[in-house]
Amino acid sequence: MALSLGWHIVLACFGVAFPSMILVLHWRGVHRDDAVALTLAHRWATVSAVLFAIGAVSGTVLSFEMGLLWPGLMGPFGDVLGLPFALEGLAFFTEAIFLGIYLYGWGRLPPRVHLLMLVPMAVAGVVGTFCVVAVNAWMNAPAGFRVVDGEVTDVDPWAAMFNDLSVLQFAHMWVAAFMVVGFTVSGVYAVGMLRGRRDARHRLGFLVPFVFASVAAVLQPVVGHVLGAGLSDRQPAKLAAFELALTTESPAPLRLGGVLVDGQVRGALDIPVLGSLIARGSLTAPVRGLETFPVEDRPPVNLTHWAFQTMVGIGSALVLLVLLFWVARRRGHDLTQRRWFLRVAAVCGPLAVVALEAGWVATEVGRQPWVVYDVLRTADAAGDNPWLWSMLTGSVVVYTGLTVGAVVVLRSMARRWREGEEDLPSPYGPQRRSVDAGEEER
Amino acid sequence: MTLPDVVAGALLVGVVAYALLGGADFGAGFYDLTAGGAQRGARLRTLIDHSIGPVWEANHVWLIYVLVMAWTAFPRAFTAVMTTLVVPLLLALLGIVLRGASFAFRKYSATVSQARLFGAVFAASSLIAPFFLGTVAGAIASGRVPAGGRGDLVASWVAPTPLIAGVLAVSTSVFLAGTFLTADAARAGWDALTERLRRRALVVGAVTGALVLGALYPISSDAPTLTEGLVGRAGPLVVLSMVAGFGALWLLLRRRFATARVAAVVAVAAVLGGWAVAQYPWLLVDQLTVAEAAGAPATLRALVLVAALAALVVAPPLVYLFRLTQTQEWSAREDHA
Predict the structure, then answer these.
(1) How far is residue B199 from each of residues A87, A164, A279, B178, B193, measured CA to CA in Å?
(2) Does A416 reach chain B within 8 Å, measured CB to CB?
(3) Buried b (16+ CB within 10 A) or exposed e, A250-264
(4) Which end of chain A is least crowded, N or C, by CB within 10 Å?
(5) Is the Cβ pair A429, B335 closer than 8 Å?
């Protein structure tokens, strides 16, 4: 489940954020008569077609897994948390339909109508993200039901959907999607520039997603901080794990790095008072330590702590980088002329993905041992499927295959674009037979 | 009609839509598989790309709709099905994943050998998915899913009715795809291809019809509750389905391709509707009724709202998409897409 989710989440980011970027380029292409922007929009749309297809199937895997792996969650709580999923399905439907119209509309629809087809896609991305994240938020802050004698009653699906955390968690994830896609796409063009391809297309292809990523990167710490502010009341054990706080300290330090070995924190760098200041907004308030929780209620500390710090660390580094870029640009220095900057920009995409996954690990592992916080333990929700391991192995094989396939196809698309083929005809199409013969001989 | 019935109806709409639209997409894999070598089959494969390319993702979402509706409205039945039929569900899932991904990969692959690999995976997995989904339906219809879930992992679906349902799901999908593709080829003006497809669709249709007749006897002894409903309350729908099925074959023979498509759709929809009517009020036959399986009323009300919203928000653009793909201008430009 974690594997499929972790894999799907990256594709979902593209589904959410990519249409907006294509919209900007396509708009520029249509309204300013910019052929370069139009070409880019067309290519990105083609890429998004491939990503959307595999995103659609990996999303299907998830909906199967919900039932296959978590009968203890879906049985009693299916009608509590189902509504946002149903609405998400609706959003996904909308996106699939308009993607179909948009992709096949190139050269067939009037330009302005064609451009409009992107708007529902972007909107559906927002709605879809909200709904899916609302379910996760519900697992962190359960609402909309009561448990009486072990039976779930008084179900109110709307209260479950709009729980205390939905909006904030959604904002955090939505902004993260723009960071991941923005940095990844601009990174691709940074690599192109490193290899000496410095035409207008590469400049535009770098700049547009980088603008999106910059805005998102600067907003993200603010959103994240607001989201984390209530954590000490909501899930104190998670906060203790984030901060690697063994004992309650007042004021608490901010602990950088460090590993918990045999009940001792090793190799951590403590910055006094800052922990209290960030987590509680006060110079003196304590951060509750892990020792105050029964052993069976503690999350895996090291993993949670490191995942959290990785996310924050990468996020902060990305903020510094984009600030550097824009300040330099204001002063008339174009950093895309510098090789070191391009190299850094190229790795920003993978870094943003790591931060995304780390953030997700932090929130999920930090909630353990609960699936639904304070209501349902993970062990009770999981099925006792005897061949869970062979299923896992099978998933690893399938996902590896999908990843390899996607990389091979996307790379060959890029190669053919560089060779000047714009329409990418299918190789088995009759009109390409002569070209194929040439390729097979090589 | 009670609230759970309304939601079950909305669920049925999703099942029928997926069987018709998703089924036709799966069925196209059969013609792709049997299209012949890279050169001989080029034109047919291009046609398939063109026919299902713009729509398969939207069609596929019906499955997600069904799953989500099922677990939200009938969580107990959903987990019972999932824990009992885990094997066919996983195999169907594998087919779905491989089909979707390799279809997208093939369209953009650069060389013939790449396209051949992805194409073979696409075509083969297209047949795996409907077969196993069919066995799931058959297992539910023949009362093999216990209400508490965790039924026998193998015996629950390796049995007459589920296996027959799997084969029927494949053959009806292939027949649907045949009528759709023949109509598309005729509209594009590819006469030789149209003839080839027409012949195959006729053969598949005849085989499907024979299968249905041959299946009656084993099903009547294996799934008594279902049979009772089929010959009783659902009788008119069964008759309608037979008439429409023969009508589709006759129209194909007469080369009335556009009308044949409608008849084929009616035939398949009537079978599925008949199945639903026949097993009502059971959701899991002999185990759990629709009313017993229903989740919280507040959730069901919300779901009815979602379904209404879907009809409002999703239906118009969906119709628009289908209309676009059927227009002359879109199909005439085969060579540039």
Answers:
(1) 43, 61, 72, 9, 10
(2) yes
(3) ebbbbbeebebeeee
(4) C
(5) yes
pLDDT of the residue at A427 = 56
Under 8 Å CB-to-CB from B103, ≥6 apart: which residues? A53, B52, B56, B118, B122
- The shortest C-alpha distance from B28 to chain A (Å) reads 16
Q: Show which of residues 151-180 on chain A sit within 8 Å of chain B, judged by CB atoms.
A: 152, 155-158
Third-level CATH fold of B3-335? Formate dehydrogenase/DMSO reductase fold (1.20.1630)
- Residue percentage of chain A with pLDDT more than 90: 0
Nearest chain B residue to A81, by CA: B72
The answer to whether A94 contacts chain B (CB < 8 Å) is yes
What pTM did the predictor assign?
A: 0.81
- Report DSSP state, residue B89: H
**Do B44 and B194 meet the contact criterion of CB atoms below 8 Å apart?**
no
Structure tokens at A51: 């990503």
A74 closest CB neighbour out of B55, B75, B325? B75
- Residue A271 pairs with which residues in a beta bridge? A254
* Alpha carbon of A364: minimum distance to chain B alpha carbons (Å): 23
Has the ipTM of the complex gone over 0.90?
no
Amino acid letter at A84? Answer: P
pLDDT(B273) > 80: yes
Residue of A nearest to B81 (CA): A67
Residue B203 confidence (pLDDT) = 92
